[in-house]
Amino acid sequence: MSGSINHPVISEQEVIRPTRVEVDLKILEENFKKIKSHVGSSKVMPVLKANAYGHGLIRVAKLMQKLNADYLGVAVLEEGILLRNEGITIPILVLGGIWGNQIPLFIKNDLTITASSIDKLNQIEAVSSQMKKRAKVHLKIDTGMERIGVHHYNAEKLLRASIDCKNIDVEGVYSHFASSDSSDLTFSKLQVERFEEAFSFYEKQSIPQPIKHISNSGAILQMPETNFDMVRPGIMLYGVYPSSEVKKSIEVRPALSWKSLVVYFKIIRAGSFVGYGMKWKAEHDVRAVTVPLGYGDGYLRSMSHKAEVLIRGNRFPVVGVISMDQIVVNIENNSAYNGDEVILIGADGTTSITVEELAEWAGTIPYEILTNINTRVPRIYIE
Ligand SMILES: *Cc1c(COP(=O)(O)O)cnc(C)c1O
Q1: Nearest 5°: phi and psi at 351?
Q2: Is the pLDDT of residue 17 over 90?
Q3: Taking the C-alpha atoms of 375, 59, 362 and 340 in order, what is their torsion angle to the nearest 10 degrees?
Q4: Is 177 exposed, middle or buried (0-12, 13-18, 19+ CB in 10 A)?
């Protein structure tokens, strides 16, 4: 069980695989502290879903706990259980929806549940009363994302019902932005209005107000007035901005590099084709190297004919269609040797390749690139 998300591969194999992700924990720490100081007295919930955006769930969680993060956010129950099994003791909110039969596991593992409807709330109440153990819940209000959560115009019913639940501690109430990383914040402002309106229910009650939170990276960067009691930074914690147009009001640096080694060198003769489907042809004799990674590691096939890598500080194109486990790099008449470092994401001296570039080559967003670097690639941590 331990490590089934983080390290599914036999560990001896991991250390000898030339393809690896390096995560700089000092940079992660720096990013966290910058966010923390920027949001002042608001609590911080680092979001660690999808293997901590590819950075490795457990190590990132341990670091965040050491740095006194107030809460951790994950997407699914299994991520929360894994963290509990690895000794994480700070509060963990599971942001995704729940199935009824998962509720006992939430309660048993002291994981905070997202209650997104009165029906779910009642299920939680029933199970916790049966187990004679209190459940911790955050209520989810849908202010315009239309994923999960009770609609803002019906929220009062959920909030009121939660007060009557004798076995549930309502620790928080939250919502989620649909486009806080856009340069146009009109809709985000409307969402905040709806959220405030729903939350104002508590002003008329004589009970302590739950933790009020809505801000993801985009809002932390662009709408500091919505920090409220807690913020939920995801992508910016890892040093990547949520969009190209977002205001970069907090300076963060990427913590992740993706590297491999040259494992094969050859000369490709003029007229020869490279790779499946014979999609690239050498017009003249070229030097080329083979690097042991591919779409089976999350180096997306859709980057074929666009991707570039760094070898010895120079950029070279990946040629031919990206295979599952190998890519071929055209170094023209330059030199490279077996064992030379190949950088897929990261810096080499003054040149670098960013996750944003990979996203552009693949026609996607940085989030998808990071979360697709899969568990076959070992994570190495730099302290
Ligand atoms: C993923 C997620 C976040 C973090 O979003 P970023 O854009 O990565 O900062 C915050 N809240 C919820 C509910 C999420 O699902």
Answers
A1: -100, 155
A2: no
A3: -80
A4: buried
pLDDT at 16 over 80: no
Q: Return the higher-pLDDT residue of 7 and 52.
A: 52
Q: Which helix (H) or strand (E) holds 169?
A: strand 168-174
19: exposed, middle or buried (C-beta count within 10 Å: 0-12, 13-18, 19+)? buried
Task: In whole angstroms, give the CA distance from residue 37 to residue 283.
Answer: 55
- Which residue lies with its CA nearest to atom 8 of ligand 1? 234
pTM (whole model) above 0.90? yes
- Length of the chain (residues): 383
Domain limits of the chain? 41-238, 256-382
The Cα 293–Cα 305 span in angstroms is 16
Q: Hey, what amino acid is at 80?
A: G
Q: What is the pLDDT of residues 169-221, one digit of tens each?
A: 999 999 999 999 999 999 999 999 999 999 999 999 999 999 999 999 999 99
Ligand 1 mean position, distance from CA 144 (Å): 15
Of the chain, the percentage scoring pLDDT greater than 90 comes to 95
- The pocket around ligand 1, CB under 6 angstroms, is made up of 47, 49, 95, 176, 216-218, 232-236, 242
**Range 41-238 has CATH code 3.50.50.60:** no
Top mutation candidate among 180, 216, 250 for ligand 1, by most atoms within 8 Å of CB: 216
Q: How confident is the model at residue 1 (pLDDT cuts 50, 70, 90)?
A: very low
Rounded to whole angstroms, the Cα distance separating 123 from 117 reads 10
Evaluate the CA torsion angle 334, 340, 344, 345 in order and state its sign.
Answer: negative
pLDDT of 60-102, one tens digit each? 999 999 999 999 999 999 999 999 999 999 999 999 999 889 9
79 vs 233: CA distance, rounded Å: 17
Domain 256-382 classification at class level:
mainly beta
